[in-house]
Design a protein that fits this description.
Length: about 290
Amino acid sequence: MTATLEIDGLKVAIGAANVLRGVSLALQPREVRGLVGESGAGKSMLGRAVLGLLPANATIISGSITFEGRNLLAMHETERRKLLGRRIALIPQDPMTSLNPVKRVGVQIGNLLRHHLGVSKRVALARASELLAEVAIREPARVLSLYPHEISGGMRQRVLIAMAFACDPALVIADEPTTALDVTVQRQVLQLVERLRQRHGSAVLFVTHDLGVVAKICGSMTVLHGGRVLEDGETADVLARPRHAYTRALLAATPRADRPAEALRPVPPALIEQLWSEARRLDRLTIAGPT
Ligand SMILES: Nc1ncnc2c1ncn2[C@@H]1O[C@H](COP(=O)(O)OP(=O)(O)O)[C@@H](O)[C@H]1O
Ligand SMILES: [Mg+2]
Protein backbone atom coordinates (compact mmCIF):
# COMPACT_ATOMS: atom_id res chain seq x y z
CA MET A 1 0.00 0.00 0.00
CA THR A 2 1.36 3.43 -0.93
CA ALA A 3 1.49 5.79 2.02
CA THR A 4 -0.59 8.94 1.64
CA LEU A 5 2.17 11.05 3.14
CA GLU A 6 5.78 10.30 3.98
CA ILE A 7 8.02 12.94 5.46
CA ASP A 8 11.61 11.89 5.86
CA GLY A 9 14.33 13.76 7.73
CA LEU A 10 12.84 17.17 6.99
CA LYS A 11 14.98 20.13 8.05
CA VAL A 12 13.66 23.66 7.62
CA ALA A 13 15.34 26.89 8.69
CA ILE A 14 14.06 30.41 8.92
CA GLY A 15 17.12 32.63 8.87
CA ALA A 16 19.48 31.21 11.48
CA ALA A 17 16.70 29.37 13.35
CA ASN A 18 16.26 25.66 12.70
CA VAL A 19 12.49 25.30 13.01
CA LEU A 20 12.34 21.64 11.85
CA ARG A 21 15.38 19.58 12.73
CA GLY A 22 14.99 16.28 10.95
CA VAL A 23 11.30 15.37 11.17
CA SER A 24 10.01 12.04 9.87
CA LEU A 25 6.42 10.86 9.92
CA ALA A 26 3.99 8.94 7.74
CA LEU A 27 0.25 8.75 7.20
CA GLN A 28 -1.43 5.76 5.58
CA PRO A 29 -4.68 6.20 3.64
CA ARG A 30 -7.54 7.13 6.02
CA GLU A 31 -5.20 7.40 8.99
CA VAL A 32 -5.92 10.18 11.49
CA ARG A 33 -2.69 11.27 13.12
CA GLY A 34 -2.46 13.85 15.88
CA LEU A 35 0.48 16.24 15.73
CA VAL A 36 0.99 17.65 19.22
CA GLY A 37 3.45 19.91 20.96
CA GLU A 38 3.36 23.29 22.62
CA SER A 39 3.38 26.61 20.82
CA GLY A 40 6.52 27.11 18.72
CA ALA A 41 7.23 23.37 18.39
CA GLY A 42 7.08 23.60 14.59
CA LYS A 43 3.63 22.06 14.00
CA SER A 44 2.39 24.74 11.63
CA MET A 45 5.72 24.86 9.77
CA LEU A 46 5.42 21.13 9.16
CA GLY A 47 1.89 21.55 7.84
CA ARG A 48 2.93 24.47 5.66
CA ALA A 49 5.88 22.51 4.28
CA VAL A 50 3.48 19.78 3.14
CA LEU A 51 1.11 22.33 1.63
CA GLY A 52 3.97 24.15 -0.11
CA LEU A 53 3.09 27.30 1.80
CA LEU A 54 6.21 27.98 3.84
CA PRO A 55 6.98 31.64 4.47
CA ALA A 56 9.20 33.21 1.78
CA ASN A 57 12.18 33.44 4.14
CA ALA A 58 12.09 29.72 5.00
CA THR A 59 14.59 27.27 3.49
CA ILE A 60 14.23 23.54 3.16
CA ILE A 61 17.71 22.33 4.07
CA SER A 62 17.23 18.62 3.54
CA GLY A 63 14.73 15.78 3.66
CA SER A 64 11.83 14.71 1.51
CA ILE A 65 8.05 14.96 1.43
CA THR A 66 6.29 12.28 -0.59
CA PHE A 67 2.55 12.40 -1.32
CA GLU A 68 1.01 9.23 -2.74
CA GLY A 69 4.44 8.18 -3.97
CA ARG A 70 5.26 11.53 -5.62
CA ASN A 71 8.09 13.71 -4.38
CA LEU A 72 6.45 17.05 -3.59
CA LEU A 73 9.75 18.88 -3.24
CA ALA A 74 10.88 17.93 -6.76
CA MET A 75 7.51 18.70 -8.33
CA HIS A 76 7.00 21.72 -10.56
CA GLU A 77 5.21 24.60 -8.84
CA THR A 78 2.23 24.43 -11.23
CA GLU A 79 1.80 20.68 -10.62
CA ARG A 80 1.97 21.21 -6.91
CA ARG A 81 -0.61 24.02 -7.00
CA LYS A 82 -3.02 21.63 -8.70
CA LEU A 83 -2.84 19.31 -5.70
CA LEU A 84 -3.53 22.08 -3.23
CA GLY A 85 -7.19 22.33 -2.29
CA ARG A 86 -8.00 19.25 -4.37
CA ARG A 87 -5.85 16.28 -3.21
CA ILE A 88 -4.29 18.03 -0.20
CA ALA A 89 -6.52 20.39 1.74
CA LEU A 90 -6.19 22.64 4.76
CA ILE A 91 -8.57 23.43 7.57
CA PRO A 92 -7.00 26.61 8.90
CA GLN A 93 -6.66 27.76 12.49
CA ASP A 94 -8.42 31.07 12.18
CA PRO A 95 -11.86 31.01 10.55
CA MET A 96 -12.07 34.81 10.82
CA THR A 97 -9.23 35.60 8.44
CA SER A 98 -9.41 32.54 6.19
CA LEU A 99 -12.34 33.55 4.01
CA ASN A 100 -12.31 36.43 1.56
CA PRO A 101 -14.31 39.22 3.27
CA VAL A 102 -15.55 40.76 0.01
CA LYS A 103 -16.97 37.63 -1.63
CA ARG A 104 -20.18 35.84 -0.78
CA VAL A 105 -19.81 32.37 0.76
CA GLY A 106 -21.44 30.72 -2.27
CA VAL A 107 -19.06 32.44 -4.69
CA GLN A 108 -16.04 31.25 -2.69
CA ILE A 109 -17.15 27.63 -2.54
CA GLY A 110 -18.30 27.78 -6.16
CA ASN A 111 -14.95 29.14 -7.36
CA LEU A 112 -13.12 26.33 -5.58
CA LEU A 113 -15.30 23.68 -7.21
CA ARG A 114 -15.09 25.26 -10.66
CA HIS A 115 -11.33 25.68 -10.41
CA HIS A 116 -10.57 22.12 -9.30
CA LEU A 117 -13.41 20.12 -10.79
CA GLY A 118 -14.11 22.23 -13.87
CA VAL A 119 -17.86 22.13 -13.31
CA SER A 120 -20.34 24.77 -14.51
CA LYS A 121 -21.52 27.64 -12.34
CA ARG A 122 -24.92 26.01 -11.91
CA VAL A 123 -23.48 22.63 -10.90
CA ALA A 124 -21.00 24.32 -8.55
CA LEU A 125 -23.77 26.18 -6.77
CA ALA A 126 -25.89 23.07 -6.36
CA ARG A 127 -22.88 21.16 -5.05
CA ALA A 128 -21.99 24.03 -2.67
CA SER A 129 -25.48 23.80 -1.23
CA GLU A 130 -25.07 20.05 -0.66
CA LEU A 131 -21.71 20.64 0.98
CA LEU A 132 -23.19 23.11 3.46
CA ALA A 133 -25.95 20.64 4.28
CA GLU A 134 -23.23 18.05 4.91
CA VAL A 135 -21.71 20.28 7.61
CA ALA A 136 -25.14 20.68 9.20
CA ILE A 137 -25.80 24.23 8.05
CA ARG A 138 -29.52 24.82 7.88
CA GLU A 139 -30.89 26.99 5.08
CA PRO A 140 -27.78 26.46 2.93
CA ALA A 141 -29.20 28.56 0.08
CA ARG A 142 -29.49 31.57 2.38
CA VAL A 143 -26.00 31.11 3.84
CA LEU A 144 -24.50 30.87 0.34
CA SER A 145 -25.78 34.38 -0.37
CA LEU A 146 -24.16 35.89 2.73
CA TYR A 147 -20.75 37.50 3.25
CA PRO A 148 -18.34 35.95 5.80
CA HIS A 149 -18.89 38.76 8.33
CA GLU A 150 -22.61 37.98 8.33
CA ILE A 151 -22.13 34.50 9.82
CA SER A 152 -20.74 33.36 13.18
CA GLY A 153 -17.21 32.05 13.79
CA GLY A 154 -18.48 28.51 14.25
CA MET A 155 -20.43 28.74 11.00
CA ARG A 156 -17.37 30.04 9.15
CA GLN A 157 -15.35 27.13 10.43
CA ARG A 158 -18.06 24.78 9.09
CA VAL A 159 -17.83 26.50 5.73
CA LEU A 160 -14.04 26.04 5.75
CA ILE A 161 -14.43 22.37 6.67
CA ALA A 162 -16.94 21.94 3.83
CA MET A 163 -14.43 23.56 1.46
CA ALA A 164 -11.57 21.38 2.71
CA PHE A 165 -13.48 18.17 1.95
CA ALA A 166 -15.22 19.48 -1.18
CA CYS A 167 -12.95 17.72 -3.70
CA ASP A 168 -12.52 14.41 -1.79
CA PRO A 169 -8.91 15.11 -0.71
CA ALA A 170 -6.60 12.21 0.11
CA LEU A 171 -5.02 14.31 2.85
CA VAL A 172 -6.42 17.03 5.08
CA ILE A 173 -4.20 19.10 7.32
CA ALA A 174 -6.22 20.55 10.18
CA ASP A 175 -4.12 23.19 11.93
CA GLU A 176 -5.66 23.70 15.36
CA PRO A 177 -9.10 24.11 13.79
CA THR A 178 -10.88 24.49 17.11
CA THR A 179 -8.52 26.79 19.00
CA ALA A 180 -10.37 30.01 18.17
CA LEU A 181 -13.80 28.58 19.03
CA ASP A 182 -15.74 28.19 22.26
CA VAL A 183 -16.02 24.76 23.88
CA THR A 184 -19.46 23.72 22.59
CA VAL A 185 -18.60 24.72 19.04
CA GLN A 186 -15.25 22.93 19.38
CA ARG A 187 -17.02 19.66 20.05
CA GLN A 188 -19.33 20.09 17.05
CA VAL A 189 -16.39 20.92 14.81
CA LEU A 190 -14.52 17.79 15.92
CA GLN A 191 -17.56 15.64 15.21
CA LEU A 192 -17.85 17.19 11.76
CA VAL A 193 -14.22 16.60 10.89
CA GLU A 194 -14.60 13.01 12.05
CA ARG A 195 -17.78 12.48 10.01
CA LEU A 196 -16.51 14.12 6.84
CA ARG A 197 -13.16 12.41 6.81
CA GLN A 198 -14.95 9.06 7.10
CA ARG A 199 -17.36 9.89 4.33
CA HIS A 200 -14.70 11.27 2.01
CA GLY A 201 -12.06 8.66 2.89
CA SER A 202 -9.36 11.22 3.69
CA ALA A 203 -6.30 10.85 5.90
CA VAL A 204 -6.01 13.68 8.43
CA LEU A 205 -3.01 15.27 10.09
CA PHE A 206 -4.67 16.89 13.08
CA VAL A 207 -2.50 19.61 14.60
CA THR A 208 -3.40 20.42 18.18
CA HIS A 209 -1.94 21.06 21.59
CA ASP A 210 -4.89 19.25 23.17
CA LEU A 211 -4.14 15.63 24.06
CA GLY A 212 -7.82 15.15 24.92
CA VAL A 213 -8.69 15.75 21.27
CA VAL A 214 -5.95 13.36 20.17
CA ALA A 215 -7.24 10.65 22.50
CA LYS A 216 -10.73 11.10 21.05
CA ILE A 217 -10.16 11.15 17.30
CA CYS A 218 -6.57 10.22 16.42
CA GLY A 219 -5.51 6.59 16.03
CA SER A 220 -1.85 7.59 15.95
CA MET A 221 0.13 10.55 17.18
CA THR A 222 3.44 12.34 16.83
CA VAL A 223 4.83 14.55 19.59
CA LEU A 224 6.90 17.41 18.23
CA HIS A 225 9.16 19.49 20.42
CA GLY A 226 11.71 22.07 19.38
CA GLY A 227 11.40 20.99 15.75
CA ARG A 228 11.99 17.31 16.48
CA VAL A 229 9.90 14.20 16.91
CA LEU A 230 9.96 13.05 20.52
CA GLU A 231 7.45 10.24 20.21
CA ASP A 232 5.49 8.55 17.50
CA GLY A 233 3.07 5.65 17.69
CA GLU A 234 -0.44 4.41 18.23
CA THR A 235 -2.23 6.96 20.41
CA ALA A 236 -3.25 4.36 23.01
CA ASP A 237 0.36 3.17 23.36
CA VAL A 238 1.89 6.63 23.56
CA LEU A 239 -0.66 7.83 26.11
CA ALA A 240 -0.38 4.67 28.21
CA ARG A 241 3.41 4.49 28.08
CA PRO A 242 4.92 7.86 27.21
CA ARG A 243 8.64 7.33 26.65
CA HIS A 244 9.63 10.92 27.23
CA ALA A 245 9.21 12.98 30.35
CA TYR A 246 8.08 15.78 28.03
CA THR A 247 5.03 13.79 26.92
CA ARG A 248 4.29 12.90 30.53
CA ALA A 249 4.32 16.60 31.37
CA LEU A 250 1.97 17.35 28.47
CA LEU A 251 -0.32 14.62 29.75
CA ALA A 252 -0.24 16.04 33.26
CA ALA A 253 -1.27 19.43 31.86
CA THR A 254 -4.19 17.98 29.86
CA PRO A 255 -7.78 18.44 31.05
CA ARG A 256 -9.42 15.26 32.25
CA ALA A 257 -13.05 14.60 32.96
CA ASP A 258 -12.21 13.20 36.39
CA ARG A 259 -10.32 16.27 37.53
CA PRO A 260 -11.64 19.77 38.26
CA ALA A 261 -10.67 22.44 35.75
CA GLU A 262 -8.88 24.50 38.43
CA ALA A 263 -6.32 21.73 38.80
CA LEU A 264 -5.10 22.28 35.25
CA ARG A 265 -1.81 24.02 34.79
CA PRO A 266 0.28 24.68 31.73
CA VAL A 267 3.70 23.06 31.74
CA PRO A 268 6.01 25.57 33.49
CA PRO A 269 8.74 26.90 31.15
CA ALA A 270 11.51 25.85 33.56
CA LEU A 271 10.21 22.27 33.52
CA ILE A 272 10.06 22.32 29.72
CA GLU A 273 13.69 23.44 29.61
CA GLN A 274 14.68 20.68 31.99
CA LEU A 275 12.73 18.06 30.05
CA TRP A 276 14.11 19.29 26.80
CA SER A 277 17.69 18.93 27.98
CA GLU A 278 16.80 15.45 29.17
CA ALA A 279 15.31 14.74 25.73
CA ARG A 280 18.50 16.01 24.07
CA ARG A 281 20.56 13.73 26.28
CA LEU A 282 18.31 10.78 25.40
CA ASP A 283 18.56 11.76 21.73
CA ARG A 284 22.32 11.51 21.93
CA LEU A 285 22.01 8.09 23.44
CA THR A 286 19.39 6.71 21.09
CA ILE A 287 19.66 8.61 17.82
CA ALA A 288 22.88 8.38 15.89
CA GLY A 289 23.77 10.85 13.19
CA PRO A 290 23.94 14.61 12.68
CA THR A 291 21.86 17.01 14.74
N1 LIG B 1 6.96 33.68 9.56
C1 LIG B 1 7.91 33.32 10.44
N2 LIG B 1 9.13 33.90 10.41
C2 LIG B 1 10.09 33.51 11.28
N3 LIG B 1 9.95 32.57 12.21
C3 LIG B 1 8.77 31.95 12.29
C4 LIG B 1 7.68 32.28 11.41
N4 LIG B 1 6.64 31.51 11.73
C5 LIG B 1 7.05 30.73 12.75
N5 LIG B 1 8.33 30.98 13.08
C6 LIG B 1 9.12 30.28 14.11
O1 LIG B 1 9.16 28.91 13.76
C7 LIG B 1 9.04 28.08 14.91
C8 LIG B 1 7.92 27.10 14.72
O2 LIG B 1 6.71 27.82 14.61
P1 LIG B 1 5.31 27.12 14.32
O3 LIG B 1 5.48 26.03 13.35
O4 LIG B 1 4.36 28.21 13.98
O5 LIG B 1 4.97 26.51 15.76
P2 LIG B 1 3.60 25.83 16.26
O6 LIG B 1 2.64 25.78 15.12
O7 LIG B 1 4.01 24.49 16.76
O8 LIG B 1 3.12 26.70 17.38
C9 LIG B 1 8.84 29.03 16.09
O9 LIG B 1 10.07 29.15 16.75
C10 LIG B 1 8.43 30.33 15.45
O10 LIG B 1 8.90 31.40 16.22
MG1 LIG C 1 0.76 26.64 14.83
